[in-house]
């Protein structure tokens, strides 16, 4: 069994995830797993990085499939004895001109961006080693101020919030969407916003849980807005390169030794998640 440090990046075959894998290959000093749902795309990305002189490993991972996550967990446990760094990058976003009904967009976006990310966490957290780090990719859309309702903001920022309670809030949004009352309920008009606010809130809950666990493994969980990046998800409208978008996530993965439960902006500084307004810059 290897004693090397081990990192896993979800959704690593393109975009910001690919750039994070590349950055980790340069500076992490351990085994870096590029994971992707599609094996051929994942292997092609690994081959591309190897041509550049890097040596990532590939493992198939579909965050929507529990069996796929379990296979990854078993592999990491058996080969490496656990995991030192988890970067939850995989996500989806419907385009602004998407024709699917809002309720369908809500159900699919919350299912992938929130519940599948949570599924990965709940499966892999037990094998995190002492001093491990978790980086959850959020967004500027994940700032609490993006939720119009003061009551919902209060619930999402409750210091007594649990994963179970947060799950119910995410499920309530989907139900409100199906009942055509999401705006009346104060969720706003973006399924992506709700999903990423959910990820930001989940990060804080997860950190509290790690702080209270016994024995304490000294694990840090932080969320990050990577910036407005030129990717498929932004329809290539973002002005930043994927390498620029990887900077703040890599800061959390490699340098942020004392940050726990923070919401970090694209310039690698801590932003106040529950302030009235998000920072103005990318």
Provide structural commentary:
The structure is a single chain. The N and C termini lie far apart (42 Å). Helix 6 (163-178) packs antiparallel against helix 7. The chain has helices spanning 15-27, 39-51, 66-80, 102-124, 150-156, 163-178, 191-212, 242-254, and strands spanning 6-9, 31-36, 57-60, 83-88, 128-137, 220-224, 263-264, 270-271. By secondary structure, the protein is α/β, with parallel strands linked by helices. It is 43% helix and 14% strand. The protein has an eight-stranded mixed beta sheet, with helices on both faces. The radius of gyration is 18 Å and the shape is globular. The protein contains eight helices and eight strands, in the order βαβαβαβαβαααβαββ.
Entry summary:
It contains eight helices and eight strands, in the order βαβαβαβαβαααβαββ. By secondary structure, the chain is an alpha/beta fold. Strand 6, helix 8 (242-254) and strand 7 form a beta-alpha-beta unit.
């Amino acid at each position: 069994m290897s004693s090397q440090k081990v990192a896993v990046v979800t959704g690593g075959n393109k975009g910001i995830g690919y750039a994070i894998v590349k950055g980790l290959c340069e500076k992490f000093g351990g085994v870096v797993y590029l994971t992707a749902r599609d094996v051929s795309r994942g292997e092609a990305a690994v081959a591309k990085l190897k041509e550049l002189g890097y040596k990532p490993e590939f493992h198939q991972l579909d965050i929507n499939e529990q069996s796929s996550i379990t296979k990854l967990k078993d592999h990491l446990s058996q080969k490496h004895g656990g995991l030192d760094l988890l970067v939850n990058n995989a996500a989806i976003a419907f385009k602004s001109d998407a024709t699917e009904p809002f309720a369908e967009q809500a159900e699919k976006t919350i299912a992938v961006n929130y519940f599948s990310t949570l599924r990965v966490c709940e499966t892999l957290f037990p094998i995190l080693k002492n001093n491990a780090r978790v980086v959850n990719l959020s967004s500027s859309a994940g700032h609490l101020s993006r939720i119009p309702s003061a009551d919902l903001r209060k619930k999402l920022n409750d210091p007594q919030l649990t994963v179970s309670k947060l799950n119910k809030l995410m499920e309530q949004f989907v139900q409100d969407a199906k009942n055509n009352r999401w705006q009346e309920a104060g969720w706003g008009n973006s399924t992506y916003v709700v999903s990423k606010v959910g990820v930001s809130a989940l990060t804080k809950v997860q950190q509290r849980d790690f702080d209270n666990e016994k024995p304490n493994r000294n694990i840090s969980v932080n969320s990050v807005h990577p910036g407005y990046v030129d990717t498929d998800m932004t329809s290539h409208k973002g002005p930043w390169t994927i390498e620029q978008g990887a900077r703040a996530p890599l800061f959390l993965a490699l340098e942020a030794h004392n940050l726990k439960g923070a919401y970090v902006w694209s310039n690698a500084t801590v932003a106040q998640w529950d302030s009235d307004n998000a920072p103005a810059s990318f």
